[in-house]
Amino acid sequence: MSTMQSDIGLVGLAVMGQNLALNIADHGFRISVYNRTRETTEKFVAENPSTPGGIQGCASLEELVGSLKRPRKIILLVKAGAPTDSVINSLVPLLEPGDILIDGGNAHWMDTIRRERDLRAKGLRFIGSGVSGGEEGARWGPSLMPGGEYAAWKEIEPIWTAIAAKVDPATGKPLTGASPGKPIQGGVPCTTYIGPDGAGHYVKMVHNGIEYADMQMICEAYALMSGVLGMTPEECSEIFAEWNRGLLDSFLIEITADILRQKDPVTGKPFVEVVLDTAGQKGTGKWTSVNALDLGTPAPTIAEAVFARYLSAVKEERVEASKVLTGPSSSFAGDRKAFIQAIHDALYCSKICAYAQGFQLLQAAEKEYNWKLPLGEIAKIFRGGCIIRARFLQKITEAYERNPQLKNLLLDPYFKNALDSAQANWRMVVASAAQHGVPAPSFYSALAYYDGYRSERLPANLLQAQRDYFGAHTYERVDAPRGKFFHLDWPEPGRPQLEV
Ligand code: NBP
After folding, report:
1. Catalytic site residue 263?
2. How far apart are CA 73 and CA 71, in angstroms?
3. Helix/strand/coil for 183
4. Which CATH superfamily includes the segment(s) 458-500?
5. Does the domain formed by 202-453 have CATH 3.40.50.1700?
6. Average pLDDT of the segment spanning 288-309
7. May I ask the CATH architecture of the domain 8-197?
8. Ligand 1 pocket by C-beta < 6 Å: which residues?
9. What is the pTM (predicted TM-score) of this model?
10. Which residue, of 81, 182, 349, 362, has the greatest Cβ tally within 10 A?
11. What is the pLDDT of residues 238-250, one digit of tens each?
12. Is position 372 annotated as part of the catalytic site?
């Protein structure tokens, strides 16, 4: 065993743990690593003998804890849920007051709130840090969303800012080109202190909810190109590649262009045509939607994206239904080029709405959990490393810089103008999708959210009257102050109207 003390430790050497450990060691920090299955640790250390910082393999948690500088800092990258609690329980007796545990897994934020509170009672510090960007992000620079005690954050900040993705300060574009032992130098790091206890994991969850919507909207654009215009995957790929040079420039559009031109190595057919149309999920989109319902905040486009995956999952039922249920059989007779531009605009407008909903949810969570979330900074750290990184994020950053009190992104002048100029096309695409029977739930829902949010008066007046009628739930009047409730003594159903 080496006598040299490590800067940080890491437990859990699956995909994320191995890549994050290499990233940390590349930045000159010495790291001790431990994995429950010992062979994994031995193989990993043997395969990576020389990194700038050095990697020390540990056969036990005792050895790991003993190898660290004080206060000890240990990252957990094990399966979220019970395994995380199990590792924490094993570590607690080995630690000293002031030591810091950092959970980099996809924990539910309420678990993080609980763990932080329980560990604080034991004199230990706990950071729940969202880590976004998958395997590639972990290796070359993820977006990192840490929440917990501020002083504990200050202890890990030098490592977090070193290993995070970096963006160009002038353009906001991610800096690329890192290689083993040669990480990116300079740039603005994609990490910032998010807030107390579960705030970091909460923001990571909402990031994932937005990611669900982003992916679904791109799929709908593809469905319209193929379903309405009859375009081949290769033709769609060219359009996405072109869009990636404009306003929609983003990681997800870029990989969509790649995927659509990929051939299946077995059959030679376009790869997407041999992939079964049922989507899986790990639950963060559902958590986001459930929490939006709990907090009473509209996030319909994010929820639609989750429901779209559920609908995709009932494949056998859909195959049966397709033989029974009918739809329109209209063919497209318009200007194809103009329609493609309209799909672009519909995607852009819907994307603005999905982000507006995600950020509105963050604002609701601030009130619910007593946080002060740095919304502009959050948009900044999404610009690099993470799955939703996009040129567009720079505009959200600028919106919050212009007005830190912004109530909804739709109200920012940049986004208002974008919606003004693109909405005719957006409406046309939604109408065409309905006319051609192509399901585009996130486009529809985003448009309904936009129209609902900009409505001075919604039909909730009738709804409230219905509630008062059958349940005496009371109603507020347009000619009385808000918060003053009335009840009408309704007649029995079918009886004559009340005399006035
Ligand atoms: P997994 O989520 O597949 O977890 C596997 C790791 O957990 C292995 O190291 C395994 O050890 C360890 N583990 C388990 Br399972 N039960 C354990 C226990 N009771 N005690 C100790 N160790 C235990 O790994 P991953 O895909 O690398 O993800 C790690 C975390 O990062 C997860 O929370 C995940 O949600 C999150 N995340 C993943 C991604 C991604 O793209 N994969 C992105 C962002 C965040 P073993 O080798 O002995 O079985």
Report:
1. no
2. 6
3. coil
4. 6-Phosphogluconate Dehydrogenase, domain 3 (1.20.5.320)
5. no
6. 98
7. 3-Layer(aba) Sandwich (3.40)
8. 12-17, 35-37, 40, 77-80, 83, 86-87, 105-106, 131, 134-135
9. 0.94
10. 349
11. 999 999 999 999 9
12. no
